[in-house]
Amino acid sequence: MQLYPLFPVLHPILKPTFPTCLWGGDCNSKAIALSFDDGPHPQHTPKLLKVLDRYQITANFFWLGACVNRSPSLAKEVCARGHWIGLHGYYHHNFPLLSPSELRDSLERTQAVIYDACELQPEQVRDVRPPNGLFTPLTLNLLQQWNYRSVMWSVVPEDWVRPGITTVVQRVLQHVKNGSIIVLHDGACGGEDVAEITNILIPQLLQQGYHFVTIDTLWQQTLKR
């Protein structure tokens, strides 16, 4: 069962219900965030980096600690290019199924391997996107209590089920708007197509007048409202 049709319906319901999450940026600004989950991946991420380099785009990566641990030099390469780094847990485990201690350990372990690979201090890597977008009020309260920032999304083309490159591109272009957070995947699921999808999307989005920013920039926009 594909969930793509539900995401545009759920977003306007969830956004006001959970206002401490970042669901998007300023609706009056053409700034959007391009984000990638589940990496770094030794085959897919390097291809994606070449595309981002070609267009000189700064993107946002939400990493799994286990993947960073397997590819520390690749993680360092991503950081060296100035891309924004966030947390996706150590493994791709749904946060509500973890105990508070397991959740905290998962995030801290991921921060630790990112520090070892990239020398980014834990306080520099505190944006968290829950795997599969699944959370509860308790999850969000714990993240806030531990000084993490919860980051969600506004454009979810469900690329991980590989509906086809053209379909993913069309879905993004259909739903993107000012302040959008687009989520794609450069991990084991969906990452096979991510470089080609991104290579098609970026010039079309630039042509529409959008410019790409970091998740941190979107947070700063919310503080100014």
Automatic annotation (TrEMBL):
Supply the source organism for this entry: Fischerella muscicola CCMEE 5323
Name of this protein: Polysaccharide deacetylase family protein
Q: Where is the NodB homology domain?
A: 30-213
Give any single GO term for biological process: carbohydrate metabolic process
Gene3D superfamilies in UniProt: Glycoside hydrolase/deacetylase
Annotated GO molecular function terms are:
hydrolase activity, acting on carbon-nitrogen (but not peptide) bonds
